[in-house]
From TrEMBL:
<dbReference type="InterPro" id="IPR015814">
    <property type="entry name" value="Pgluconate_DH_NAD-bd_C"/>
</dbReference>
<dbReference type="InterPro" id="IPR013328">
    <property type="entry name" value="6PGD_dom2"/>
</dbReference>
<dbReference type="Pfam" id="PF09130">
    <property type="entry name" value="DUF1932"/>
</dbReference>
<protein>
    <submittedName>
        <fullName>DUF1932 domain-containing protein</fullName>
    </submittedName>
</protein>
<dbReference type="InterPro" id="IPR008927">
    <property type="entry name" value="6-PGluconate_DH-like_C_sf"/>
</dbReference>
<feature type="domain" description="Phosphogluconate dehydrogenase NAD-binding putative C-terminal">
    <location>
        <begin position="38"/>
        <end position="87"/>
    </location>
</feature>
Length: 104
């Protein structure tokens, strides 16, 4: 990708940095929590591999499909997230961070 100079309005650079931070840190937090619960179920390696496959396959069409699918199926998504939260409560992680399945 060729570098380019961007002239941003007042505050736009800070807003972009904050928005990027929300996405990256939020996504990372979801990955850590997913891996922690997966490890408690003996599925840590599978979950890690699934995350890698999913994230390396992302492009504009996949992102659009994820966003559109979430909106279109929001009622079902709520039920799925409630079930995931129940799993997290029933099977709390035994380690402070998800590192065993993906270290080294």
């Amino acid at each position: 990708m060729k570098p380019r100079v961007a002239f941003l309005g007042l505050g736009e650079a800070a807003a972009r940095k904050l928005l990027r931070s929300i996405v990256v840190k939020g996504l990372t937090a979801l990955m850590v929590e997913s891996l922690r619960v997966a490890e408690s179920q003996g599925l840590g390696r599978w979950c890690y591999d699934h995350l890698v496959d999913t994230l390396t396959g992302l492009d504009g069409a996949v992102v659009r499909g994820l966003l559109d699918g979430t909106v279109a199926h929001s009622v079902r998504r709520v039920a799925e997230m409630e079930a995931a939260a129940s799993m997290r409560r029933i099977c709390p992680p035994t380690r402070p961070a998800a590192t065993t399945c993906c270290s080294g």
